[in-house]
Predict the structure.
Amino acid sequence: MSSAISPSPSAVDATKPKPRRPADYPPNGFGDFWQRKLRTSFRRMNRSGSGLLTRDDFRAIGDEMVRLGGLSGQRAEDVRAVMLRIWDDYYRPREGGSGISADQYVAQKCRMVNGPLRDDVTRYGQELFKAMDHNGDERISREEYRIFTEA
C-alpha cells in the first residue's frame, strides 16, 4: 500500500493551463513572409486560374478532398458542405461579385486574425478540422493532412 497522497481534483485543475483565446495573443503584423504564404495559398486554391477565389474553387477543393480521401456517402457530403460553409461564412464577397482577389484574400485573413472576426477564428478552425478529419476520430493523421494539402 502506498503512502503517497493523490492530489485532489481541484489541485490538479488549478495547475492545468487555461485554454487560450485569440484575444490572448497579440495582433499579427502580417509581414512579408506571411503575405507570401497567403498569396501562395490563394494561388493553390484558385482552381480556375481566374485570379479570383470563388465558391466554385471551394467546391472543387471539397471534391478533391473527397476524391483523395476515398470518401463516399454522408462523409463525402459533409466534407463538401464544410468547404462551402467556409466560403459562405468567411470569404464570400459582401459587396457583390462572385469572387475575391489575392489582395482581398490577404486582407480578409488579416481581419480574421486581428479584426472583428478574431473571436470566430476558433469556429473557422473547427470547421476546417471537420473537413480534414475524414474518419471522425477527432485527430488529423499524416494521411489526412497530406490529402488536405494536396487538395
The two ends are 56 Å apart (CA to CA). The longest helix spans residues 73-91.
